[in-house]
Amino acid sequence: MPDSAPSTERTVVHLVRHGEVDNPTKVLYGRLADFHLSELGHRMAELAAEHLADRDVTHLVSSPLERAQETMQPLADAVGLPVTLDERVIEAGNDFEGRTVGADPKQLLHPRFWVKLRNPLRPSWGEPYAHIAARMSAAIDDARDAARGHEAVIVSHQLPVWTTRRHYEGKRLWHDPRKRECALASVTSLTFVGDDVVSLSYAEPAASLLPQASKVAGA
Q1: Per CATH, is 10-24+37-93+128-212 categorized as 3.40.50.1240?
Q2: Is this prediction's pTM over 0.85?
Q3: How far is CA 192 from CA 48, 112, 145, in A?
Q4: Hey, which end of the chain has fewer CB within 10 Å, N or C?
Q5: 146 — phi, psi (to 5°)?
C-alpha cells in the first residue's frame, strides 16, 4: 500500500529581482522588448550569482524579458544548468507601459488617465494583483516540484515578486509601492516542507551597489 504520509522534504525556491536596467529616458518599460541591464545591473547580477552559487541549486527559471535573462546568466554559468523561460513569471501588465510616469508623475493628473486610476486596489491600470499571485504561485509550484529536496531560482520582477511574498504571508495584495521590500537583484526565498511554505527570508546581495542605482529603476 502506498505511503500516504505527507512529504517532509525541504525545498527552497529563491525569487530574484533583476538588476538595474539601462533606461536613460526613464520609461516605464514593463514588458517592452530590448531593455537590457546597465553596467551596474550586470555587476548586481554577478553579486546575486555569488550569493546563490554555493547553494544546492538544481533548477533555474527566468522571465523571458532580456533584463531577467541577463540577470540569470552569471548564475547559470556558475552552476552549469540550463535556464527554463516561463511566461508566468514575466513583469506585470501595465497600461502606462512606454510612458515616463515614473519620472514625471504629474502626467497622471491629465483627465485622460483618470479612468485608469479609478481603483488602485485592483489595480485598474493593469494586471490584477490576484492574477499576478496566481500565475507566480503556479510557476513556483512547478519549480519546487522540479527541485524537490534541493533549491530552485526564479528571476522575475519587482511587482510579481512582492505580490507573491504578500500572498504567501497572507497579507492583502494591494499595497503602497513605496514600501516594497524588493530591491534590485534582491533574493526572496521561500522554504517549503513538502508542498507547504514554512518560512520566508529576504537578502540584498547587491546592497553595496544600490546607492549608485537610478532613482527611477523600473521594475
Answers
A1: yes
A2: yes
A3: 21, 46, 10
A4: N
A5: -70, -25
**Per-residue pLDDT band at 177 (split at 50, 70, 90):** confident
Closest CA to 155 of 185, 181, 200, 195: 185
Cross-strand pairs, 61: 84, 154
pLDDT at 165: 97
Residue ranges covered by each domain of the chain: 10-24+37-93+128-212
Q: Compute φ and ψ for 131, nearest 5 degrees.
A: -70, -40
Q: Which of 135, 126, 53, 68 is nearest to 95 (CA)?
A: 126
Across 9-18, b (16+ Cβ under 10 Å) vs e yields eebbbbbbbb
Residues 6+ apart with CB under 8 A from 189: 12, 13, 14, 15, 200, 201, 202, 203
Alpha-carbon distance 9 to 104, whole Å?
Answer: 49
Q: Which amino acid, 53?
A: A
